[in-house]
Amino acid sequence: MMKDYIAKMKGGAKSPPGVGLGEVLWSWLGAVIGVGTCGYLSAHYFEPRDLTLIIGSFGASAVLVYAAIKSPLAQPRNLVGGHIIAGIIGVACYKLFGGTIWIAGALAASLAIVAMLLTKTLHPPAGATALIAVIGGEKIHDLGFLYAFIPAGLGAFILLIIALLVNNLSKNRRYPEYWL
Questions:
Q1: Which 8-state DSSP code applies to residue 53?
Q2: Whole-angstrom distance, CA of residue 94 vs CA of residue 67
Q3: What's this model's pTM, rounded to 2 decimal places?
Q4: What is the pLDDT of residues 118-150, one digit of tens each?
Q5: CA–CA separation, 53 vs 143, rounded Å?
Q6: Where are the alpha helices (DSSP H) in the chain?
Q7: Do the Cβ atoms of 61 and 83 come closer than 8 Å?
Q8: How far is CA 31 from the centre of its chain?
Q9: Which of 64, 85, 107, 177 has the fewest CB atoms within 10 Å, counting from its CB?
């Protein structure tokens, strides 16, 4: 039994093929415009108002929506819904358990996973969105439940708009695969 368990860790599938230079360039273009747009808007319009429009989990979202565009985890429902749901759960966990950060963080990430699975919005970077709601510091905590919508929801929506525009410029790319 233990031998079979250990054998699973060897893997068995072949490594995926590499991608061409065109795919690399389109992925780069989408990511630089998407993350750059969120950063620019954050610096010039949101931060002067004690808000933000950029969080670390958007870097991982950019990988999915600009480079892994066929993945179910990269589709619009998952991108936007996952971030909003995880943001709400993260803030709730901080408000309820923030006195013990490690408990609040563990619950935020794990409950966000459960909620995303149940709502068909699984988006791995949103697990970080939930955790950021707990460990993000005073500026994030001061946002309260607004955090789920600004920056999490609005930022994800901006990444989505850029993904729609850039990913469909190439004749070889199509995004999204589906909406709902």
A1: S
A2: 32
A3: 0.94
A4: 999 999 999 999 999 999 999 999 999 999 999
A5: 12
A6: 2-8, 21-41, 57-62, 76, 82-97, 101-119, 125-135, 138-141, 154-167
A7: yes
A8: 13
A9: 177
